[in-house]
Design brief:
Structural class: mainly alpha
Shape: elongated
Order of helices and strands: HHHHHHHHHHHH
Distance between the termini: 21 Å
Number of helices: 12
Strand content: under 5%
Length: 228
């Protein structure tokens, strides 16, 4: 087995990359580069959340309630992220908060944060229920992107691949295009997993031809195509 470190030489020729043992090996060795992309996405979420949280000063009471939830319930769960009782409290209390503030957009950043914490702790069902609140709140395409991208990942973690595919397809219809290559790469993976090689190939090809600025995802798509 080759011991070539693809992470330390990200600009290697594609032919050399295609000599890797398999796609999983490539993704593992390129974890640093892929995580870098994720960090950029998280940064975008934080900036978006900061703006939306304080955009409507007329909702001072709502903002106060949201802050209280974040500084108590979410803080407690963050300290004990494997506690099932606290995970359920995150979901239940957020649902109650949603009932109080309605579809106030200032709640969305906390919904995203809560779903991320729950998913990171392995509480995927609770994360699914929380992100569903985000679907009700998010009306603009930009906001929907952050919700749907998380929902697709959570559904895949729950082995609900068909629903994950539906969510990703909905994501591609949005006018906001963020990390489009990853969206189509995930669609390709899931279609391939479902046995639909034609649709898988179509999505991998889209990544290669239309998402050229997302180099790492292009390389992975090319690897999948080389195995088909």
């Amino acid at each position: 087995m080759s011991t070539t470190n693809t992470t330390s030489t990200p600009n290697r020729d594609l032919d050399q990359i295609l000599d890797e043992a398999n796609v999983q090996s490539f993704m593992s060795k390129n974890k640093t580069a892929i995580l870098a992309v994720i960090v950029l996405l998280i940064g975008a979420v934080v900036g978006f959340g900061f703006y939306m949280n304080y955009a409507d000063k007329s909702k001072a009471e709502y903002n106060s309630d949201i802050h209280l939830y974040e500084s108590t319930v979410l803080k407690d769960f963050s300290a004990k992220a494997t506690d099932a009782t606290l995970a359920k409290k995150v979901e239940v209390d957020l649902s109650a908060l949603h009932s109080k503030v309605g579809d106030y957009i200032g709640l969305l950043p906390i919904v995203l944060k809560a779903s991320d914490l729950l998913a990171a702790g392995g509480f995927f069902l609770e994360a699914k229920n929380v992100i569903a609140i985000g679907e009700e709140i998010a009306s603009e395409d930009y906001a929907q992107y952050f919700v749907l991208s998380r929902k697709a990942t959570i559904l895949e973690d729950l082995k609900e691949d068909n629903k994950a595919i539906e969510t990703l397809e909905k994501l591609t219809s949005l006018s906001t295009k963020i990390f489009e290559g990853k969206t189509y790469l995930d669609l390709g993976r899931l279609y391939l997993k479902a046995g639909d090689k034609e649709k898988a190939k179509k999505n991998f090809t889209y990544v290669v031809e239309k998402a050229k600025d997302e180099a790492e995802f292009v390389k992975i798509a090319q690897l999948y195509l080389s195995k088909m």
